């Protein structure tokens, strides 16, 4: 049996290791398009801060790890998949035959259509090559402009601030982290960043970048800035263009079932490029976080070796540290039609809590500064716990999350165990 895995990120590596565990004699080939050993993009900010060296970003640190497992690493980029011939065409003109295929090609930065976006001194922060360029330019007191204040943008911002640069952040949305936080929470994060010395423009676009040193940046609010470095962190898109002419069904990402199998039998997808079913929202979503990539990779790999496994669900979680301010987002944090919600805000203390209900189930929440409740919020949302009378108690006092969890979630778990026996 020959397994081909497209993508050398966490999903690809975990899938390969899982296949090898259950299929000791099968051939496994991982195709990655970067010259470095498999590494984690989520470690790049720690590289920029100086907490780790480049080797610290590598997914596996034991010498000869992949060779010892007889996992072949091949450099290349998939150009097309022939589902009839069961083969992948690579950019060097070669083809790879497969019996089972895993698409784990991840995502790439979305490049906004801005004049000058490809000028020298303008970089995404996505690859180790990008990180090296940023390290050279983001020296102490350098003028850095970052486009984008989403989840990834805030992580990059943390690393830049630690390097002592003069930092300006420009976000098109009306608040920071707009896909994770409501207006109050997003505004509180902005206030926090500005108090830490970061200049933040929300509801603002970069309109043009003049490609000369220093870079001259024109904003939609009329502001003109000079910058030594511009970082583009305006979002990502799944790497699925090579599937355009195949019969593998794609929506936002590669559409999968509960086994992570695509519309073509024997072909699977996992990680940032996969669109999987989320049991909380009842929809298929691309949820580009590493815990999801790991869960999906294991599920896909088990099915690839004939061990039937189902994905428990997609985790919609974000826990973000923005210059020391902890914020969280779980499930349908924006709420659902006909649902109820409650908010509690203490701006001087830097604390905010927003709970969203449908019936007596907590379907989503936001928080700032409520670090003691992170596990409880996740447990209630993901467990779809029926709160009963505790829903009304939380509407009156949302700080009673721990009490509600202990009274409801644990009781329901005990009843489920009894029923199972």
SSE diagram, text form:
Elements: E1 2-6, H1 10-22, E2 27-32, H2 44-49, H3 65-68, E3 71-75, E4 78-82, E5 87-90, E6 95-97, E7 100-103, E8 107-109, E9 122-124, H4 128-137, E10 143-147, H5 151-162, E11 166-171, H6 183-195, E12 199-202, E13 206-210, E14 215-219, E15 224-227, E16 229-232, E17 236-238, E18 254-255, E19 267-269, E20 274-278, E21 283-285, H7 290-304, E22 317-322, E23 325-331, E24 340-346, E25 351-358, E26 361-368, H8 374-383, H9 390-396, H10 401-420
Parallel strand pairs: 1-2, 1-7, 2-3, 7-19, 9-16, 10-11, 10-16, 11-12, 18-20
Antiparallel strand pairs: 4-5, 5-6, 8-17, 13-14, 14-15, 20-21, 22-23, 23-26, 24-25, 25-26
Could you characterize the architecture of this molecule?
- The chain is α/β, with parallel strands linked by helices.
- The chain folds into 3 domains: 174 residues, FAD/NAD(P)-binding domain; 113 residues, FAD/NAD(P)-binding domain; 97 residues, FAD/NAD-linked reductase, C-terminal dimerisation domain (Enolase-like, domain 1).
- It is built from 10 helices and 26 strands.
- Strands 3-2-1-7-19 form a 5-stranded parallel beta sheet. The protein has a 5-stranded parallel beta sheet with strand order 9-16-10-11-12, with helices on one face.
- The radius of gyration is 23 Å and the shape is globular.
- The chain starts with a strand and ends with a helix.
